[in-house]
Structures are given as structure tokens and as C-alpha cells.
Amino acid sequence: MQLTPDDSFNRELAAQVHPDNWVNPKPSGRYDLVVIGAGTAGLVTAAGAAGLGARVALVERHLMGGDCLNYGCVPSKAILRAARATADVRAASGLGVTIHGEPLVDFSQVMERMRRLRAGISVHDSAERFRSLGVDVFFGQARFVDSGQAIEVDGQQLRFKKAAICTGARAALPDIPGVARSNVLTNENLFNLTELPRRLAVIGGGPIGCEMAQCFARLGAQVTVYEPTDRILTKDDPDAARIVMEVIRREGILIRTNTRVESLSRSGSETTVVSRCRAEERRDAFDAVLVATGRAPNVEGLDLEAAGIAYDKNGVTVDDRLRTTNSRVYSAGDICSRFKFTHAADFLARIVIQNALFWARAKASQLIIPWCTYTSPEVAHVGLLPSDAERQGIGIDTFTQPLSSVDRAILDNETEGFVKVHVRRGTDRIVGATIVAAHAGEMISEVTLAMRNRIGLKGLASTIHPYPTQADALRKIGDQYNKTRLTPWTKWLLKSLISLGR
After folding, report:
1. Architecture per CATH, 377-484
2. pTM
3. Contact 354, 345 (CB under 8 A)
């Protein structure tokens, strides 16, 4: 497989995740499980099943590792780290550290470092590693044949007892005139860049759009974000979205909310974006345009109809046990879940292993799945938002701890944020939480653990947290709840008991 640019790191990556000299094995007999797609869901399914003694085949048409390794988590977080370092240098004077002049960013070196690290990590997802685990690895387009009894790949038929569709999703191009002719960027080619675009337009103010907008602005680009609604991060807590929008605007990013992109046109090295905000039309020129407006499921070429597998624009249809409409076929990951995260794909794959191979009855609805947007500050969430609770008719009490009252956040000069926890009304049972903090993604796991193990706010309050840490905000939330238990009657009773002891 050819990756861009053609350097030693991308050649190393290709040698791991789609070797040019790979020869597909000859199938013999029937597989216990055939897995289509070698992204996170497929890799976890294949490795887990093989480790339990199943005879497993894994089919991938492009690059093993899927989006996460090649176009998503790994490359994006590598360059976000460089962007954060740049921001830290710019903010150093506020800590009493004098830096003379602007930090010098070598964008080509930032991207080369990303490619080097990605290639090094790729060994974990490599074809050779999975062959060593006992998995038969096939490269090519898979399609169902024989009424769903077999899968054909590269001219060979793989007969199966059970199968798992784990083909993921890809960047969806919006229905904007000119978008297909304007050489736009998506997450699938953004990380091929070797030169920094001087002027970058980002269409879409969701997690990917906001992360990359802030990243490229910190690395030196002039960035404009186009968002058709009245705010960014529309799936997150509105207070969290407001803080992120204030921060990235302060960093020089132009955010055009309530603005719809009406057309794109490419001329030479420039792309003109025509947008409209209410009655006002604008025409702005950019060196590059990143489209970050959502995902589309990878269902093409599978001949799902031949196997009686239902699907729609959102992906493959599954029940709570991740069975498709063909009882012999299961699915996991972005192709079938609204939670399009690597960690969600991992745990959905574990459900497929249990249910497909061992007749278990594990349910996807029982998973408690957190997520995080890696802007600065980060926004992490788990469970219900207040709007979710209202829609479901669940009464909640909300406790909020601003970071401006957390000592470590004050000392770190990272006071823009909060910890917000929702509990079922009248109890300490946690039903959801949002954290906005420099390392919110690290902090949210404590709340997820508490929810998974039914530890309420009383449990958080009684858990000793090291001082000073920003995670101590969670203990403070627990203290807030405990104070609500001190009703006037309780205070009178305690005062009486103290008086008796005098």
C-alpha cells in the first residue's frame, strides 16, 4: 500500500499493516469466526476469539489498525502534543518564565515525528502479529455469498459458523456544491500534510473540527471554523462548549456560528468558501479546507443483502446483543454504534466474542461509555446530560465544582473549567458527569468507575485524594453532596448530641 509521503516511516507502517508481499493463506474447513475489518473492533474480536481457542479469519481491504492507528487517535494526538507544547511556551510569561519571541514551529518535523511514532505503534496491529496469534489474515474486499454461509475474498471462500462485521466508518462529505472538486481535507488525508496551510477553513464545529482547528492555529495557521448551529460541540454540555469556544477564540480562531457553507470553488492553490449567516453572504479564500461534518458507515461492497443483513445510513442494524438480522452474523464498532470511539469499539468487540462463541447474553446497553474531546481544555463526559435526563423523565440533582476554587488548578494557571456531576434526585447515585479541565480525559475514568460499581458521591467524598491535584475536585463534589444531608433537623440532632457530651 502506498502512503503519503513516501518516507521510511510510512514504508515501515505499510510493511506492518498491509505488506506488499503478503500471501493470503489457503482456507481449509469452516472457521468458528470470520471477522471483516481490522480496525479496533475487528482486531479485538479476532485476537480475543483466537486466544480462547477459536479458529479465526480476519479480512482487511486496506490498512490494519483502521482509523484509530492510521487516520485518527494516534496521528491526531501526536500533533496535538506539539501544539500544546507551543501553547505552553506562549503562556510561559504568565508563570514568570521569560521567552524571547514567538516559538519556532517546524511543521515538517511535527508531522515527521507523528509518522515515526505511528509506525512504531503499528507493530501491535500488524498482520504478522495476528498471524502469530493463530489468526488467518486475508487482504482484499470481503463480500457475503451462499446466502450468508460464507464470505468471499480474493477469489477464495471462507465458510463460517459465525461472522462479525467490523468495517467501521469514514469521513462523510457534506452535500455542498463544489466540495468534490475542491481537493478538501478530511481526517483521512489531513495527516499526509508536510507543509502548514497558512489559511485553513474548518467546516464543522464538532470534536474533530475543534481539536484540529485549535491544533493548526497553535502551529501557526490562520483558522476559521464554520458551524451551522449557534454553538460548537453541540453534543456536549452547553457550559463546556462555551468555555472551549471562549478559549479558542481568544487564541485567534475565528468561529462563524449560525453560518452555512453554500459552495466551494478551487482556483490554483486557493479555495473560495461561500458562506451565509442569515442574510449576509461572505466569500473567503483559503489555502486548505478541512471537512469535519460527520461519519458514514463502510457498508459498500459487502453484499449484505445476500446475507439478509439490514442496514441504513447509520450502518448495520443490530440488537442489544449486537446480532444483525442474520442470526449467524454480529457487528461491532463504528459500523453499528452511535458511540464512534476506539474504546467503545474495544468493549463492543468483547460482547461479540461472548455472544457469538459462547451463547452468552451480554448487552451493549449495559456498557457505560465515557468520551473526551481533546481540545485545551479537554471536555470529557459520561452518562446522561441534563437534556437526556429530561427527555427520559429522570429527575436529577446537579453538583458543580469550578476549577477556579481548586488549589492545583489555580497553581497550574488552568482555572477555566469545572467538574459537574448529576445524581438521581434525592440520592447520591451518579447518572452522568461532565469535566472541563486540562486533563479531563484522565479524570473522567474515576467517575466511570464509580458509576460502573455503583459508588455514589458519598463514596467519592470518603476517598482520600492526594493534595494538591485537580482530581480533588471530585472529592469536593462529594463534600457538596454531604452538606445537603445536613438538614435543619439533622443539625439540631447533632447539636443536641454534642451538648449531651459536655
Report:
1. 2-Layer Sandwich (3.30)
2. 0.95
3. no
